[in-house]
Design brief:
Strand content of chain A: over 45%
Shape of chain A: globular
Strand content of chain B: over 45%
Largest sheet of chain A: 7 strands, mixed
Order of helices and strands of chain B: EEEEEEEEEEEE
Oligomer: heterodimer
Number of strands of chain B: 12
Shape of chain B: globular
Structural class of chain A: mainly beta
Distance between the termini of chain A: 37 Å
Largest interface: A-B, 28 and 22 residues
Chain lengths: 115, 112
Amino acid sequence: KAGVTQTPRYLIKTRGQQVTLSCSPISGHRSVSWYQQTPGQGLQFLFEYFSETQRNKGNFPGRFSGRQFSNSRSEMNVSTLELGDSALYLCASSFTSGGNSYEQYFGPGTRLTVT
Amino acid sequence: GDSVTQMEGPVTLSEEAFLTINCTYTATGYPSLFWYVQYPGEGLQLLLKATKADDKGSNKGFEATYRKETTSFHLEKGSVQVSDSAVYFCALSDQAGTALIFGKGTTLSVSS
């Protein structure tokens, strides 16, 4: 079974631009979560989607948004990029039953550099 | 709020040495607990998990026991290999499993 895939793997953007990252979950997984990893703040939860609905959101500004499609693929968008948005963005998917999600499996991440 | 505290690294060991990485947590309710490993340039790999008190998770020689009385989930391995060199993250999940809360990570370096 194929793992979680993320595209692109690397991205360089300029301050003020916007960016869209994509995530395809493991087949059969309907929950997708996003995390930001930086040397200073570590791993921080951004948001989680299930059945095209955002169920949970971390403490990030409104510039960070996401969505999920009917095939469970997910995208996250960051608008008006700031230098501090440079990070590894990780997507994870999990199997869900009865509304509860189980262990999360991570993709390789998208390395975003903002200049 | 919920939180995870891991021992500070880096941890430097010789091959075949015994490994312990301490992890304690603060949480309301009874979260599931996880250890993830990250190799350079890669995403996180699930190493092991435990979903209730006294559960022992194990994988690839690594073990961790969910201790509710001490709110701990320490990672152990009896004999480390050079290939175990990586960053290890302890994490807990919220009740619905929608979000993971991670510790800061512990870098392990094993030399031959």
